[in-house]
Amino acid sequence: MSLEPTLNRRTWLVMMLRAGGAAFGMGLIAAPAAHAAKPPVLTVFKDPSCGCCTKWVEHLRANGLAPAVKDRTDMDAFKDSLGIPGPLRSCHTAVAGKYVIEGHVPAADVKRFLSAPPKSVIGLAVPGMPVGSPGMEQRGRTDRYDVMAFTARGTTHVYAKHG
Length: 163
Hints:
By secondary structure, the chain is of the alpha/beta class. Helix content is about 30%, strand content about 25%.
């Protein structure tokens, strides 16, 4: 009499499913994507007469983001309410959840920031309106500019350099 169990189809399937589950749990088998990654939801607040703001929104859309746009005439008060330091301000402001994007920040920087925001940073800003930044393009000229990260306390550091 043999003490070894016979390997029937059902036993084999159970063994394979257990092995597959273990491989999945160890990350050896990738999980199938249920849905394609959705771009972060951004709401852009801008003055209704600002043309460069519209161009920045077009830049975001061309780079896979899907911003909603809301016109406001009280931008300074709005920026105050979000805690954007005065020296970092520009013409438009975007909000994505608890984060703020101020000014002509390139879409690649927006995506990188929203996918892995640095600890204690509440937003990114491109102060002023530098020539060559998204929405401020001019033929043949691109000024150097920095994308600044800022905290709720107003401390800043360079997040990215451009130009």
